[in-house]
From TrEMBL:
Its cofactor is heme. Heme binds at R73, R113, F162, R359, Y363, R370. This is Catalase. Signal peptide: none annotated.
């Protein structure tokens, strides 16, 4: 019998060896082997000028990055979306000629996609991360895309560094860990060695990075854009989305638990709210700066790592967006939608923000590979509501059937049509801005302050929010293996606050910085979520009930519902529970299928006939909610249970012993959290 040779895995390994490379201690080159003298800055016309198409290195680097993943998005892979409409409050003709911003009686259809940034498509939704907030307006002049985040600033100042940032925050390539998390060495190594990230990191370590709901999350256009009116006058503008329900967050332990209990928590919340008719609403706000005031601030208004303090440049609320229809098919709509900051309409233009300039290239390039070619605009979710005509033909996924022989401009066979339209007739014309400067790879000196606004953010936080930021840094850096990286980050954020840096250093065993914080000279109350709107609307309350409950309970539940609160019954089984008066309540959840982290408040009712196991399950719900600073209510037997557990006399705990139980419980729910509660 002929002896069989084993599968020669070693030879296969040897085949692979020729493709392996160690980039350490090597010169940086293009993919063609050209040595590079600069990898920090894209090529611009002057230090504050626009990015040039001539920049072959930027285009190669960004093109490669845009095509690294198939088929899901490289970033923002985990997303969910909904349809809606936008209504203007008053005409903005003073600032822009965009038609959808002229007439308050016109409703503009919109499609909004929310997303995490770092995780893959199957990752959990309540991870610590920035969130995408992208809005497509289907206007009569064409599609306008406002492609933003829930944080008003970004990690980097120049688009050429975007691949580096995402490579650093994604799972480390040697072991593909961790998923959807920034608590690892490469991300924090990037932060420590790219200190322009300081401001965004402060936001990411704050409660803003773990929103309670997509319905309770702000949105920001991030970049500085221009509005141009019919007379050709321009203003610099930043865009904001302000949630009508206020801006609210989870607590970290709660967010981690939800990731295991319900990784679809945010999309489920959005879907169910729309199905229930509790339509999410956001007001559109704009900050306006006259062109002649461009240089009057102590920061560069084109720097994407800087915000415009609302106390200095007020936000004017100009309209409301309502999301009122869920998608019919997630793939066809949510996954195939293609956003692009370069999808604009007359009256909206760009600035020379170098991060924005790079995005104007990157987004189209990304769609080409993700959606299979140049005709992604013909997919139903991307098609404009107005007709489109041009000489572009063929390609993957072509649906338009163009008639006639002409597919070029200028021509006589079709009377030179389709023809350009003058600006006076609605044709788009770029704002004319004088640009002078040497072709340079450089950054303006005005972009080099990396810490003042990070300090402003810290100074603007409440004591509770500061505690959460310290805990977030301690958790994230506690996961970092490199002692050197840990120390570098501590030293870096001593430039923001020595109080912050010292407490984090103590938590992770690093050397604390010397000195003390300088006296606070400026803060921005608008940055603190303590100042946000607090309403009970759409808050979910777990109502823990057993058979033989009091006959007063249905009346309490009706009072809650009248305030827009959503009580949901939790019990041992899904069989209806019956009251002493013969009334019945439908049970939506059991102790097995539910958890207190999935609710905004807990209401313990119980009953005298409930057994010891039921009592323990109810107290587990209440204790966890208590530790997460949530409101807790109790009536009937539940009052005795809370008293026995020592939970009855803390802030935000309301019992039936008060004559105003329902009103006081609603007030407690409106407060969102009760941070003055003593939790051991």
């Amino acid at each position: 019998m002929t002896k069989k040779h084993p599968v020669n895995e070693k030879s296969k390994q040897e085949q692979l060896e020729q493709f392996k490379t160690d980039d350490r201690n090597q010169a940086l080159t293009t993919n063609q082997g050209l040595k590079l003298s600069e990898d920090e800055f894209s090529l611009k016309a002057g230090e504050r000028g626009p990015t040039l198409m001539e920049d072959f290195h930027f285009r190669e680097k960004m093109t490669h990055f845009d095509h690294e993943r198939i088929p899901e998005r490289i970033v923002h892979a985990r997303g969910f979306a909904a349809h809606g409409e936008f209504e203007l409050y008053d005409s903005l003709s003073e600032y822009t000629k965009a038609k959808f911003l002229q007439n308050p009686s016109v409703k503009t259809p919109v499609f909004v996609r929310f997303s995490t940034v770092a995780g893959s498509k199957g990752s959990a939704e309540t991870v610590r991360d920035a969130r995408g907030f992208a809005t497509k307006f289907y206007t009569e002049e064409g599609n306008y895309d406002l492609v933003g985040n829930n944080i008003p600033v970004f990690f980097i100042q120049d688009a050429i560094k975007f691949p580096d940032l995402i490579h650093a925050v994604k799972p480390e390539p040697h072991n593909e860990m961790p998923q959807a998390a920034s608590a690892h060495d490469t991300f924090w190594d990037f932060v420590a060695n790219n200190q322009e990230s300081a401001h965004m990191v402060m936001w990411s370590m704050s409660d803003r990075a773990i929103p309670r709901s997509l319905r309770m999350m702000e949105g920001f256009g991030v970049h500085t854009f221009r509005l141009v009116n019919a007379e050709g006058k321009a203003h610099f503008v930043k865009f904001h989305w302000k949630p009508v329900l206020g801006t609210h967050s989870l607590v970290w332990d709660e967010a981690q638990t939800i990731s295991g209990k319900d990784p679809d928590f945010h999309r489920r919340d959005l879907w169910e709210s729309i199905e229930n008719g509790d339509y999410p609403e956001y007001e559109l706000g704009i900050q306006i700066i006259d062109e002649e005031d461009e240089f009057k601030f102590d920061f560069d208004i084109l720097d994407p790592t800087k915000l415009w303090p609302e106390e200095d440049i007020p936000v004017k609320l100009v309209g409301k967006m309502t999301l009122n229809r869920n998608v019919d098919n997630v793939f066809a709509e949510t996954e195939q939608v293609a956003f692009h900051p370069g999808h604009v309409v007359p009256g909206i233009d760009f600035s020379n923000d170098p991060l924005l300039q790079g995005r104007l290239f990157s987004y189209t390039d990304t769609q080409l590979i993700r959606l299979g070619g140049p005709n992604f605009h013909e997919l139903p979710i991307n098609r404009p509501v107005c007709p489109f005509h041009n000489n572009q033909r063929d390609g993957y996924g072509r649906q338009t059937i163009n008639k006639g022989p002409v597919s070029y401009h200028r021509n006589s066979l079709a009377a030179n049509t389709p023809a350009p339209v003058p600006e006076s007739g609605g044709g788009y014309a770029h704002y004319q801005e004088k640009v002078e400067g040497r072709k340079v790879r450089s950054r303006s000196e005005s972009f080099k302050d990396h810490f003042s606004q990070a300090t402003l953010f810290w100074n603007s936080m409440s004591d509770t929010e500061k505690e959460h930021i310290i805990s977030a840094f301690s958790f994230e850096l506690g996961k970092v293996k490199s002692k050197s990286v840990q120390q570098q980050v501590v030293d870096m954020f001593a430039n923001v606050s020595t109080v912050l840096a010292k407490q984090v250093a103590q938590a992770i065993g690093a050397t604390p910085p010397p000195g003390e914080d300088a006296p606070v000279t400026k803060s921005s109350p608008a940055l603190s979520q303590e100042q946000t709107i607090k309403k009970p609307n759409t808050r979910k309350v777990a109502v823990i009930v057993a058979n033989d409950f009091s006959g007063d309970l249905p009346q309490v539940l009706n009072s809650l519902k009248q305030q827009g609160i959503q009580p949901e019954i939790v019990s041992t089984t899904l069989q209806n529970v019956k009251g002493t008066d013969g009334s019945e309540l439908e049970v939506q959840h059991t102790f097995l299928t539910s958890d207190s982290v999935l609710f905004d408040a807990v209401y313990v009712v119980g009953s005298a006939s409930a057994d010891e196991k039921f009592r323990k399950e109810a107290l587990t719900f209440a204790q966890e909610a208590f530790e997460h600073f949530k409101p807790i209510g109790a009536t009937d037997e539940g009052v005795k249970w809370l008293k026995a557990a020592g939970l009855d006399s803390s802030p935000g705990v309301v019992t039936g012993e008060t004559t105003r139980f329902t009103d006081e419980f609603i007030e407690a729910i409106s407060a969102h959290r009760h941070w003055n509660r003593h939790v051991i």
